[in-house]
Amino acid sequence: MHSSLFPQKRLDQGHTVSEVDGNKLIFLRVFSMHVFGYGSLLWNPNFPYINCTVGYIFGYSRRFCQASPDHRGTEQNPGRVVTLVPEENAKVWGLTYSIATDKADEVREYLNYRERSGYFVVTEIFHPADGSPKFPVNIYISCQIANPMFCIGESLEQIAERIINSKGRSGSNVEYILKLAHSLRKLHPNAVDKHTAELESLVVKLCLQRKLYDKSLIELCYAVQSHFQ
């Protein structure tokens, strides 16, 4: 299944098939790079791509345990954004962007800068939701060793408090989690993970209880304007 959220151009020619662990994988010659998005890349890739495909990877779970000292917070008050942490038998839904050969260096340079706060790249196998052949993808995840931005172990309540009080140059941390949950629901019925859903619910509850206005609450239909007046 290809996402209806973004422009698509399906390419069915010029591919080769290789064997990896006895399973067929498809490699499109026109692509030199496939990037799996599971956070803000779902709604804001901001780089050129040929198509995007809905699907999932195994062996990880999505967690709000990456500090954001720039995009969704500040150095003095870093927000919380998602990364992936290893978890046996877990599944993470997202979008894979296929990038043309002549754009790969440009996109790689952009993503290396965008994800500079403690992220590194791993390669995993992506499973398209429509059952088409799986293929390897690049994924930016947080480094868990000697990385002050990796903050695993916080409770949902601690993360929620951080989110409702953080804002960076890309916008509020509240906007980030609400857009993430909204984007996941549009991807696939099974795309929203328990951690994100529970945190989303708690953040919305706190915002409404404390009358903490954020425009995304209105735009994404979590509340009405009059509630904050």
UniProtKB/TrEMBL annotation:
<dbReference type="Pfam" id="PF04752">
    <property type="entry name" value="ChaC"/>
</dbReference>
<dbReference type="InterPro" id="IPR006840">
    <property type="entry name" value="ChaC"/>
</dbReference>
<protein>
    <recommendedName>
        <fullName>glutathione-specific gamma-glutamylcyclotransferase</fullName>
        <ecNumber>4.3.2.7</ecNumber>
    </recommendedName>
</protein>
<dbReference type="GO" id="GO:0061928">
    <property type="term" value="F:glutathione specific gamma-glutamylcyclotransferase activity"/>
</dbReference>
<dbReference type="GO" id="GO:0005737">
    <property type="term" value="C:cytoplasm"/>
</dbReference>
<dbReference type="GO" id="GO:0006751">
    <property type="term" value="P:glutathione catabolic process"/>
</dbReference>
<comment type="similarity">
    <text>Belongs to the gamma-glutamylcyclotransferase family. ChaC subfamily.</text>
</comment>
<comment type="function">
    <text>Catalyzes the cleavage of glutathione into 5-oxo-L-proline and a Cys-Gly dipeptide. Acts specifically on glutathione, but not on other gamma-glutamyl peptides.</text>
</comment>
<dbReference type="InterPro" id="IPR036568">
    <property type="entry name" value="GGCT-like_sf"/>
</dbReference>
<keyword id="KW-0456">Lyase</keyword>
<dbReference type="InterPro" id="IPR013024">
    <property type="entry name" value="GGCT-like"/>
</dbReference>
